[in-house]
Design a protein that fits this description.
By secondary structure, the chain is α+β, with helices and mostly antiparallel strands. It is built from seven helices and 18 strands. The strands form four sheets. Strands 1-2-4-3-6-5 form a six-stranded mixed β-sheet, with no helix packed on it.
Length: 389
């Protein structure tokens, strides 16, 4: 059965549970339009096929003055297998360290459109982080994105895509898709344990609340005209985004209660400097009992590599306890070599660098952002796109 509900194409029975995502594996011949990729939700409990099966399907989409005809013939179906090493890393690794599917460590977002005859009423469901660990937030694209979800216009983005400068890779605390949503995904992928189940529960609760008001919002928008309609839908986009943003910010505070501070003003990627990370102790979250041998630092996994990140992180070379900020609570200071720490980073950019450690057998993580430089490339200097990773 092929059905469509709330902007998501569903194969099978949409009420039966255990929904996952499949992606177009190859562009088939005969399509009048070009389809780079297509995300579809698959219901495993009733779908009569398995991974690798060919699925004949013809779709014609009309909306916003655009007609796309695609003839889809083969899909990659990454069925979730929680006990499989193909998707889950070894204990020391991050959860998705072996995944090459749609929800790999380097997955940053996902979007599904429900195109309508009235372009302004076209709705989308979009994640601002790894799709299997993120809430799909409803949005009306033509009404304009919520503040904080973009920091440049389309023309600038296109130009920078082909001639990017290091500053475009800067960590921005106000760019929430990375600073909040991707950071949250990175944290739970390392923390593992029951955090993955907690995130799934949170996703279901948030999406159910959005589903409940879908018809009412669209009906109200359809009764409005011109700027009044655009404003109504943009305000909805903003409210939906702000709701989920607040939820994930609160989650991040819970997931990463210990602040991390990098004491070096600059990390030199072509030197063997000592770089110290402080993990501050707090009441209820003491840091005594840190495990130096299980401690690493480096880029967030969603930036560094799609698989097996642990081997690319810098090991701690030294560890000591002291009260760094004078609050009467013991802190722990880890030392790393700058060249290993900056592996995969973009020289000339401010990068978020993460600490991955264990305290009394429990995983603890957090990050700080500092400029990464080399002798040839300093913060703020342009390389005209040369040498970018």
């Amino acid at each position: 059965m092929l059905g469509q509900r709330s902007g998501r194409i569903i194969l099978g029975n949409p009420e039966a549970g255990n929904v996952t995502v499949i992606r177009l594996l190859q562009q088939p011949k005969g399509g009048a339009g070009y389809c780079d990729s297509l995300d579809i939700l698959l219901q495993w409990n009733s779908a009569p096929f398995t991974a690798g099966d060919a699925i004949p399907l013809s779709i014609q989409i009309k909306g916003a003055g655009l007609v796309i005809r695609a003839f889809l013939s083969r899909f990659e179906i990454p069925r979730p297998r929680p006990s499989s090493k193909e998707y889950i890393g070894e204990d020391q690794e991050l959860y998705h360290s072996l995944s090459e599917g749609i929800c790999r460590t380097t997955s940053h977002d996902s979007i599904v459109y429900n195109l309508t005859k009235d372009p302004m009423l076209t709705e989308a469901w979009k994640t601002l982080g790894r799709p299997c660990q993120s809430v799909y937030i409803p949005v009306y694209p033509l009404a304009g994105p919520a503040k904080g979800t973009a920091f440049m216009d389309g023309a600038t983005a296109t130009k920078e895509h082909f001639a990017g400068t290091p500053s475009m890779f800067d960590y921005r605390a106000d760019f929430a898709p990375h600073a909040v949503f991707s950071a949250s995904n990175n944290a739970i992928d390392y923390l593992r344990a029951d955090e993955l189940a907690k995130r799934t529960k949170l996703i279901h609760e948030q999406e159910a609340a959005f589903m409940a008001d879908r018809d009412a919002v669209t009906k109200k928008a359809a009764s409005l005209k011109g700027e009044e309609r655009t404003k109504f839908l943009h305000d909805y986009n903003e409210a939906a985004y702000q709701k989920v943003l607040g939820v994930i910010q609160a989650e991040n505070a819970r997931l990463m209660p210990n602040k991390v501070k990098i004491l070096s003003k600059v990390v030199r990627a072509d030197h063997e400097d000592d770089v110290q990370f402080v993990l501050y102790g707090t009441k209820g979250h003491e840091v005594l009992g840190a495990n130096m041998s299980a401690t690493r630092a480096g880029m967030s996994a969603n930036q560094l590599n799609s698989t097996r990140q642990w081997k690319n992180f810098a090991p701690a070379t030294k560890m000591e306890y002291k009260d760094v900020n004078g609050d009467g609570l013991m802190d722990v200071v880890f030392t790393f070599k700058s060249k290993e720490l900056a592996k995969g980073a973009v020289p000339g950019a401010v990068m978020d660098l993460w600490l991955y450690t264990q305290i009394n057998g429990h995983r603890v993580t957090g990050f700080d952002a500092v400029p990464v430089e080399t002798d040839k490339v300093k913060k703020g200097e342009s390389r005209n796109g040369k040498g970018l990773l």
